[in-house]
Design a protein that fits this description.
Distance between the termini: 19 Å
Shape: globular
Radius of gyration: 20 Å
Structural class: alpha/beta
Strand order of the largest sheet: 3-4-5-2-1-7-6
CATH architecture: 2-Layer Sandwich
Helix content: 40-55%
CATH class: Alpha Beta
Strand content: 5-15%
Order of helices and strands: HHEHEHEHEEEEHHHHHHHH
Number of domains: 1
């Protein structure tokens, strides 16, 4: 992680404030200004009432627009998992509007992707990205849906192209769910933390809110006494050294509670698949090439056909893995 990825003074102060309990009136760091990524979080602390109200309104609109479809998924016996902001806003932040987001990220099991998508369509949502066919077939892991200006992203994997990261999802990913609401759950804290860190590692730039996400999740993992589970799952991704670098940063710069033995264990396990992270951050269609490298059988043939169709239609191939939210 380069110098540009390091947290700034506002982020450091915000993390200290959050980790100490986010007591109103206790923030003592620099003023974030109007455009910093943590302005919404610190709006009340810095007297920006209008920004605080706007954040609360945004959250309410997002939650209420998704509520009917989540209720229908629950009635159909399908549970979806909230990922990143849509989970953390209501479970680790002092108030939902303090965790800004552009969309709601939802994770669904492979066997439920078709039915979940159809329920969204039945409830008036429409796709904004191409490829519901290649989504339901498993060639890509993400599809964007929109209704009344609200965006939701359905995911079945942490990478946009699952074939670039075969067999690396945590074995206990869908176990020990945290109930959030009808039809909606959160991953166990150690897995929520792992997914957020991998998301950070695959992006060229790091948003301040990702640092606060990780700090608060480290606190939850500590409270749940599940660092051993986190370490095992991080080791199995073959991205251990990269994960250890992030954990070292949040411990040393942001005072997040991270055990030294977790960091050392992951540093020692190496980074066998680290080149994938480098290529994903570079972009330039590299993920598409990686996907072709790892796909086999009918999926490789189908992907080549889909890629040809995109080129003919003039649409640039999608190269990101998950939203930049």
């Amino acid at each position: 992680m380069g110098k540009a990825a390091q947290p700034d003074a506002v982020t450091k102060a915000a993390c200290r404030w959050l980790l100490s309990g986010a007591i109103k009136g206790d923030y003592s760091g620099p003023d974030p200004g109007e455009s910093h990524g943590l302005t919404s979080l610190l709006a009340e602390e810095t007297g920006r009432t209008e920004i605080s109200l706007a954040g609360a309104a945004m959250w309410l609109r997002l939650e209420q627009t998704l509520k009917p479809v989540l209720q229908k998924l629950d009635a159909a016996g399908i549970t979806v998992w909230a990922v990143k902001g849509f989970d953390l806003a209501r479970t680790v932040y002092p108030f939902p509007g303090g965790r800004p987001m552009c969309d709601a990220d939802l994770f669904v099991k492979e066997e439920n992707r078709r039915r979940t998508l159809s329920i969204f369509f039945e409830n008036g949502w429409r796709k904004t990205s191409h490829g519901d066919g290649i989504f339901t077939s498993g060639l890509i892991s993400e599809i964007k849906m929109i209704k009344h200006g609200v965006m939701a992203e359905l995911h079945t994997h942490i990478f946009y192209f699952p074939a670039t990261f075969p067999g690396r999802l945590p074995a206990d990913l869908f176990l020990n769910a945290r109930p959030i609401g009808p039809g909606l759950s959160g991953f166990a804290w150690h897995n929520a933390l792992l997914l957020v860190i991998i998301h950070l590692l695959t992006n060229k730039t790091v948003r301040p809110v990702w640092w606060t996400d990780i700090c608060l999740l480290c606190l939850k993992v500590t409270e749940a006494q599940s660092w051993d589970k986190f370490t095992v799952n991080a080791f199995r991704t073959d991205l251990g050294a990269a994960v250890a670098t992030v954990l070292s940063e949040v411990r040393d710069e942001l005072s997040a509670p991270v055990p030294e033995d977790t960091i050392q264990s992951l540093k020692n396990c190496g980074d066998a698949r680290g080149t994938i992270l480098i290529k994903l951050r570079r972009g330039n269609k590299i993920p598409t090439i990686l996907n072709l490298r790892y796909l086999t059988g009918w999926k490789r043939i189908s992907w080549i056909a889909a890629l040809f169709q995109l080129v003919v239609s003039g649409i640039r191939p999608v190269t990101h893995h998950i939203s930049k939210e």
